[in-house]
Automatic annotation (TrEMBL), chain A:
Signal peptide: none annotated. PROSITE patterns: HIS_KIN. Residues 141-361 form the Histidine kinase domain. It comes from Flavobacterium croceum DSM 17960. Gene3D superfamilies: 1.10.287.130, Histidine kinase-like ATPase, C-terminal domain (3.30.565.10). This is histidine kinase. Its EC number is 2.7.13.3. It is an enzyme of class 2 (transferase). Keywords: Kinase, Phosphoprotein, Transferase, Two-component regulatory system. GO terms for molecular function: phosphorelay sensor kinase activity. It catalyses: ATP + protein L-histidine = ADP + protein N-phospho-L-histidine. InterPro entries: HATPase_C_sf, HATPase_dom, His_kinase_dom, HisK_dim/P_dom, HisK_dim/P_sf, Sensor_HK_Regulatory, Sig_transdc_His_kin-like_C.
UniProtKB/TrEMBL annotation, chain B:
The lineage of its organism: Bacteria, Pseudomonadati, Bacteroidota, Flavobacteriia, Flavobacteriales. Signal peptide: none annotated. It comes from Flavobacterium croceum DSM 17960. NCBIfam families: small_GTP. This is Small GTP-binding protein. InterPro entries: P-loop_NTPase, Rab, Small_GTP-bd, Small_GTPase. PANTHER family: RAS-RELATED PROTEIN RAB. PROSITE patterns: RAB (PS51419).
Amino acid sequence: MFEKIREKYLLNKTQIIEIDTLGNILNSDNRIFNLSGVGQIYDFHPFFYSIESLLSLKNCEQIFYCIHIEHLNVQKSVDVFFTNTESENPILILYDFTEHYTNFQHIAQEKNETVLNFHLEELKTKLLQAEKEFKNKFMANVGHDLKTPLGASLWFINMLEKTELTNSQREAVLLLKETNTLIKGLIDDILDLSKLELGKISLDENWENLSDIIKHIQSIITPKSNQNGLQFTVEFEQNQLPQFIYTDKVRLQQILINLLDNSIKFTRKGYVKLSVKNIEKQKDTAQLLFEVEDTGIGMKITNKNDIYNSFTKLHNQKNIEGSGLGLSIVSNLITLMQGDIHYVTQLNQGTTFSILLPFKTK
Amino acid sequence: MNNSKKIVLIGHFGVGKSSLVRRYVQNTFTDNYMVTIGVHIVKKEIQLNQKSITLIIWDIEGKDDIKKVRASYLIGTSGFIYVVDPTRPQTYEHITSEINFITTQYPKAKYLTVANKSDLIEPEEIKRLFDSLQIKIDYFASAKSGDEVSSVFENLAQQLLDNV
Ligand SMILES: Nc1nc2c(ncn2[C@@H]2O[C@H](COP(=O)(O)OP(=O)(O)OP(=O)(O)O)[C@@H](O)[C@H]2O)c(=O)[nH]1
Ligand SMILES: [Mg+2]
């Protein structure tokens, strides 16, 4: 019975090959690989070149583990045992451990792959970071280089304005001045954004009067919206709001003016509204909700966070100027202030931006 | 039998040993990682200056320590290719002692050091990196782009031809 079991389960897992000292195959039981017609062991598989140096040795035994051999479409992972102590001629014994080694491979695969993938992810992030930093440094440098000549040109325009000019010349100078101011605003945005993304802007916080801040914004936005035939309203519940907040006034105004400017730009008729609410009143802190609402053209959004990326232009309207930098500056500043920004928008109905910011109060 | 020489690729797992062999022998590349266990052996016959040589290339499983490589795999090796991944410092931090091991255990064998995956790093940066660590790298290759891959094998083969 044992012989039967051995025949069925074990013999097909081993193969014995007899060769001569020149590597010619003399005998093979062909249990795993069919070697009939193969002259030299080297023609069987290149692995066997490695036993060439053993052939001349006396009383040599050597085992080689886990050799992958493919022959006539049979693929096996075998251990190879070499001996020339048994008979006159060298003997090779092949043990088929394919299943065992395949399991082994799966385990190693999982382990190594995890390590390598983790490393690749890390590498990618680093590369992206470096790219971003390069972009920001580049922008900061270019922006800086542009500022000096632009300043000079503005100075010359101001000089020109003071000279005696004909009406049409004066008109031209005014236009020139407007254009230059626009460019200056753009460069300031670029510089701001690159500094923000490089983490080179810190807040300059002080105790500020909240209603003064809002009044200042009102004084800037009201004439602009009037010019565009829009109504600008401010909702400000004085008794619900803290009188003093600890903040960087300039940056807070920058955020709100930026959003309001945007609203005016994209609204043809209707209104633009700013409201301020106190969401969470504690003794020394408050969460203020600023909302900028318009009845403008709205945005067609494919990716919700895309709008805060620099250089994303949301509105493909050709007649509306803007670099798309404004929103990324806003979102960067809000992050710096540990706040949150959200928006809802509907095409041809309008957009509302909501900003939640925490403040120390008194 | 003609002039055959055994070449073994050594190095940590995932540095690209199998990929280098695949690029050299089949001129293909894949991003899919298939971990080698044991050894895959391929043969390639080449001509160098009218002399022919048969390379028996042993692509063995990666080990972080050459002493852990099965000794039977290294019997009769004429040439070693030590492969590192320049993006993973662990793969080259002990290269000097690993090379020492080769030169003392296999004094007659030739060897080359290769930084693979050089497509992932700027050429200047990669050279500066190894210079600063005083590690001698013979080839900055990429199995992915194919850069310098055949030079590695041919240079080693040439050394083995000169050796006889
Ligand atoms: N970018 C890039 N990736 C490579 C290069 N060479 C190999 N790879 C990738 O690196 C991973 C590992 O490559 P392998 O050739 O399997 O590495 P190995 O050294 O044989 O690994 P082990 O068999 O586990 O020792 C695979 O995902 C390859 O696609 C290369 O030159 N450039
Ligand atoms: Mg491999």
